[in-house]
Amino acid sequence: MNTRKTLVAASLMSLAFASSLTLAQDLDKTSFNYVGSWSSLSLYQNFERPFWEKHLPEASDGKISTKVTTFDQMGLGGGEVFRLMDRNVIEVTSTVADYAVEDAPELEALDMPMIAPDVETARKVAEAYRPVLADAFEQRYDGAQLLAVVPYPSQMVFCNADIEGLSDLKGMKVRASGRTTAEFLQALGAEGITLNFSEVPGALQRGVIDCAVTGSLSGYSSGWHEVSTHLYPLPVGGWDHVVTAMNGKKWNSLSEETQEWLAAEIKENYEDPVWNSAVEETKEGIACLTGNGDCSRGDAGDMVLVEATDSDFTEASRHLEETLLPNWAQRVDQEWVDRWNETVGEVTGLNASK
Questions:
Q1: What is the pTM of this model?
Q2: In CATH, which of 3.40.50.720, 3.40.190.170, 2.40.160.40, 3.30.470.20 is domain 3-152+240-281?
Q3: Given CB 3.0 to 4.6 Å as the disulfide criterion, which of 178, 254, 270, 285 pairs with 258?
Q4: Which of 146, 17, 151, 22 is CA-nearest to residue 93?
């Protein structure tokens, strides 16, 4: 492992609480080309775009300029952006961690079904695993610098079929939000289907799939409530973390002062606000989907909210320990398994082994 890289990442995180120490006149005059996540969703519209397009230029007194777009606006699916970053085609980019696991299976261990049943645990897991992720990005993507890890709202199950609980997914075709979610669904007896996010509403409407997993507010923003009848709120897909990174060439071109300032700005004005909003966005998403509660984002749907039972939690946790963690451990070197146990394992009380 690159110990120096880990120490640098930890140092930058500690400096994130002291952004005022670096003044705008100390910053490099530079520009960032940023490629963000799904353009239609709240994360990009309310957090990514305002931060990269408006906040950074203003906070730097014009020293930093930006050009901002999203991978879907570029005609991409999201899984390619870190590879393009690795080739210096993209300078800074964000995508769902699950989209990149074929290239970097270490990312899978950040977020698995039921590893973090609430946002507080999800953040503890993300913070514990962050130095490991930083090393993975440095090794997998030619010196890339990890900048941020944020969640979407809790990843729930939308079904265009009657369900009363987790066991009713058996035999159904369910669009998974990632590889470990697909493995979880298969352990339940469902068929995990890989499908691009934008293709899901049509597939639900035509009966190509019975159900699909995404965040509550993401599903509402994309109209899934119009083609689904039942909502199951257990975080079957975890929190679908979105990871931001900068290519190594761009990062190394920045002065130490600019690196520290950028890390501080990202934490205080992007990461913290997104994490703080995760609970409320999850709740409002459910309200907007079901009509149970206040919905400030438009007309509420009338989906049936299915109650998760204690036996559902027990069954989901069993599959995490017996299937998902062992499967992941087989896909990575023992070194990564050990580091997961030393970080996430300490937070959750879980243990991964080959």
A1: 0.87
A2: 3.40.190.170
A3: 254
A4: 146
